[in-house]
Design brief:
The chain is of the alpha+beta class. It folds into two domains: 312 residues, L-amino peptidase D-ALA esterase/amidase (4-Layer Sandwich), CATH 3.60.70; 130 residues, Ubiquitin-like (UB roll) (Roll). 30% of the residues lie in helices and 23% in strands. It contains 13 helices and 19 strands. The strands form four sheets. It has a seven-stranded mixed sheet with strand order 10-19-14-18-15-16-17, sandwiched between helices. The protein has a six-stranded mixed sheet with strand order 6-7-9-11-3-8, sandwiched between helices. A four-stranded mixed sheet has the order 1-2-4-5. α1 packs antiparallel against α13 and α9 packs across α11. The protein is globular and about 70 Å long. 49% of the residues are buried. It comes from Collybia nuda.
Length: 482
């Protein structure tokens, strides 16, 4: 018996372990009419995962006649996985254009040396080969993603065979890759590792009188604390290694590559970079957006691309739609956090800047002491304050003194999701006489919010979405490789 199982068995003899609630209700059929036009996709079992029939390989192709714009945000982890490095290179060489995505689950292809790079390129080249010659505008048209165990090589021959098996489905004469909900669902399932449900959403929106569609999928349940940015961005800190957040968003709007990247960077900062399950960043975190213009209006034969300089109003609408959609997808990851029983919004207000508010919300959301108290349904607001006060604020200029939090101006409130009254636990630095019964009622809900008001000059406000730490999280991660 593994160490984690022995520990949990001992715990079970002394405490009552709450069962992890089912998350299946977060997934259901979506109308096929809500999915963007001009995409073919599927998910299949290639043999990466040990269980037969479980999807572990996804292929997504844009079939639009218009060149497809592509943008991505990648992990800033120093140990960037091979598929991250390969996709970064392709986006750079193509100046923000790509037409296909291939993803495998079950193996991250991270920290795998030269062989890992060769395998990632093999996935790209095999998927490129599926595309008709008329679609080839660049040397490589495919972005690649992988997720799963770190430090192991891909069973690349099985993956190559799986990709090649889709060739008949993409030929002009016998094209059979689906475009309806079932195809999107299969592709979403191919992303999954310890996820308990496929994470898939879609929406319809209008810009300049033209109706567009957007759909996307992501995965992630453990090792979730992304810090992603455009290709080539990094920082030197070495993070702990484990699973991954992956996602792709597809739209039939036409957006210029530069504006697609700036919109995605903005959206990711306020969505995927604002979630945490366990505070650990992956080597593989990747979010990709494709915009193929299949539903765009034309000026004669020329498709009009939404651009931040030539159509600022249209761009702002698209940026907000993308941000709201990314938030919806990001929240699904937290809801499916490994062993999670709570979905908690942490809101920080009254900070000097958004950056300061975001940093404090992040610190609260990653505090093991806060997260274990959430699992125990204990309104231990002192832990929230300790996390809040540990974050240094940013000076307004390089030579100025950084702001300091005044404890006498800080408020902390627990806000239930059921519409009943909130529970202040700290007002202007003075502790309230907490109704512990009421506190237990709020913290026993699946969803609630923690609001921290700093009372500093400035309108910096940020939200983070997090979950609790449970015994089940220890079990899953203690046995992850087996």
């Amino acid at each position: 018996m593994s160490g984690s199982r022995v520990m949990l068995k001992r715990l079970a003899s002394t405490v009552t372990i709450k069962p992890t609630p089912s998350k299946a209700h977060h997934h259901g059929p979506l109308p096929s009419s809500s999915f963007p036009s001009g995409y073919l996709l599927t998910g299949l079992h290639a043999g990466v995962k040990k269980v037969a029939g479980v999807p572990d390989l996804g292929v997504i192709v844009s079939t639009s006649e218009h060149p497809t714009a592509a943008a991505a945000c990648f992990t800033r982890n120093a140990f960037k996985a091979a598929p991250v490095l390969v996709s970064e290179e392709i986006l750079k060489d193509n100046r923000g254009r790509a037409r296909a995505i291939v993803v495998n689950s079950g193996c991250a292809n991270a920290v795998t040396g030269r062989q890992g790079m060769d395998d990632a390129w093999a996935m790209v080249k095999e998927t490129d080969a599926l595309l008709p010659p008329s679609m080839h505008k660049f040397k490589h048209e495919t972005l690649v993603m992988s997720t799963g165990v770190i430090g192991q090589n891909l069973p690349i021959s099985k993956i190559v065979t799986g990709i090649r098996s889709q060739a008949p489905n993409l030929s002009a004469e016998t094209r059979t890759l689906d475009t309806d909900f079932s195809a999107w669902e299969r592709a979403a399932k191919a992303f999954m590792t310890t996820d308990t449900f496929p994470k898939l959403r879609s929406r319809v929106f209008t810009i300049n009188g033209v109706e567009y569609r957007m759909a996307g999928m992501d995965k992630g349940a453990g090792m979730i604390h992304p810090d992603m940015g455009p290709a080539g961005t990094s920082f030197p800190a070495v993070k702990q290694l484990h699973a991954t957040l992956l996602g792709c968003i597809l739209t039939d709007a036409a957006v210029s590559p530069r504006s697609l990247q700036t919109a995605l960077t903005y959206a990711v900062d306020r969505s995927f970079n604002s979630i945490s399950v366990d505070g650990d960043m992956s080597t593989n975190d990747t979010i990709v957006v494709l915009a193929n213009g299949a539903a765009a209006s034309t000026d004669g034969a020329q498709v009009k691309e939404i651009d931040e300089e030539t159509d600022k109003a249209g761009y702002e609408i698209f940026k907000q739609e993308l941000t709201d959609f990314a938030i919806d997808l990001a929240k699904l990851v937290v809801r499916d956090g490994e062993g999670a029983t709570k979905f908690v919004t942490v809101t920080v207000k009254g900070a000097p800047t958004y950056k300061d508010a975001h940093a404090i919300a992040s610190r609260i959301s990653t505090s093991a002491l806060v997260k274990t108290a959430l699992y125990g349904e204990d309104a231990n607001w002192g832990r929230i304050l300790a996390a809040t006060g540990s974050v240094p604020l940013t000076p307004s200029t390089p030579t100025s003194t950084p702001p300091i939090i005044d404890p006498s101006k800080v408020n902390v409130t627990f806000v239930p999701s059921d519409g009943t009254s909130s529970l202040p636990v700290l007002i202007n630095g003075e502790p309230e006489k907490v109704d512990e019964v009421r506190a237990k009622e709020i913290l026993s809900l699946e969803d609630f919010e923690i609001v921290v008001e700093l009372g500093l000059s400035g309108d910096g406000e940020a939200r983070y979405w997090t979950c609790d730490f449970s015994y089940e999280y220890v079990r899953i991660n203690g046995d992850y490789r087996s």
